[in-house]
Amino acid sequence: xxxxxxxxxxxxxxxxxxxxxxxxxxxxxxxxxxxxxxxxxxxxxxxxxxxxxxxxxxxxxxxxxxxxxxxxxxxxxxxxxxxxxxxxxxxxxxxxxxxxxxxxxxxxxxxxxxxxxxxxxxxxxxxxxxxxxxxxxxxxxxxxxxxxxxxxxxxxxxxxxxxxxxxxxxxxxxxxxxxxxxxxxxxxxxxxxxxxxxxxxxxxxxxxxxxxxxxxxxxxxxxxxxxxxxxxxxxxxxxxxxxxxxxxxxxxxxxxxxxxxxxxxxxxxxxxxxxxxxxxxxxxxxxxxxxxxxxxxxxxxxxxxxxxxxxxxxxxxxxxxxxxxxxxxxxxxxxxxxxxxxxxxxxxxxxxxxxxxxxxxxxxxxxxxxxxxxxxxxxxxxxxxxxxxxxxxxxxxxxxxxxxxxxxxxxxxxxx
Length: 416
What we know:
Elements: E1 10-13, E2 22-25, H1 60-63, E3 71-72, E4 81-82, E5 89-93, E6 99-102, E7 119-121, E8 128-129, E9 133-134, H2 141-153, E10 172-203, E11 208-226, E12 231-234, H3 241-246, E13 256-257, E14 267-269, H4 275-297, E15 302-331, E16 334-341, E17 347-349, H5 355-378, H6 385-415
Parallel strand pairs: 9-15, 10-14
Antiparallel strand pairs: 1-2, 3-15, 4-8, 5-6, 5-7, 6-14, 9-13, 10-11, 10-12, 10-15, 15-16, 16-17
Helix pairs in contact: 5-6
């Protein structure tokens, strides 16, 4: 059976009927769609390596860059600008300010980041630093929807009507920009190290020798070497850092050099956090890891007056695009953002909380302490009330810690 593919010179355009794709003759001079090397059909795989028309699969090995696409860190590289996708339309949202790329004929009227119908044309493509690598999509929309449904429906703190309030059919596929940093960190430390020594002395009171342990402090030095590779730092400030951190469990060994055909049918968010700023953020995180490694390198647990210095060498970076599914939904007059990792299926997002259940749970955890305290007051007349009052304090402390943990968890659910 022959496979029908759209003829050359035709591009997809918006359709009024859901599920039906309409093809129209491209405008003169417009760039045609990228085509599959096997069947010649337009590449509309939506971020994966499989052609939607004939099933031909591009092998990741054919794309992989043996050097990982890393570049030496230099501000001169900022001059090597190129559009993310040739012929793409540059769109932005007047509500949240997000900017992304769209293929001609595939323009949405609703922002994929805040779910507000406030999308405007920014006046064509703007030069940006071209991505060097990307991670192909391995999770289908149906699988992402299943992960998201399970995440929304799980947990007794969620409102009963939460799942019904989310329009899962509007799950959007987006390639988010990240900076991946690599470096060699040479850290040296200097500290007073206490070592336990056993000493025997004469005790004149007992007329005998006694053994005791003392800590002898000496100045010592050491060094450690850390070699972090592809440390991810989000290249956008349009999404909450906590949400991005929740879906950052990518297997970067599967990355391939940037290919425009893998963007077909998907949006690509432009970075809005520049390379130098992102590098400073990454440096602080990596410096913290180096300082912890220095602490772990000390030979004993008795450490004081620790000082350390970290030397960054062989700094390298690459601009990468990583796939996620986004969904924004309205609930209680508020927009909630959720996202699904396009490779692992990990879900991160904001969820409404049934606060009535939270307060009832806190009341239940504190009630044993209150009841025990009241009983202790009544039993004071027989002389055993103090025991119950002391017990009530212990129960109050345990209930207070549990209540605080529950409250913080509920707040983190809403904040993402």
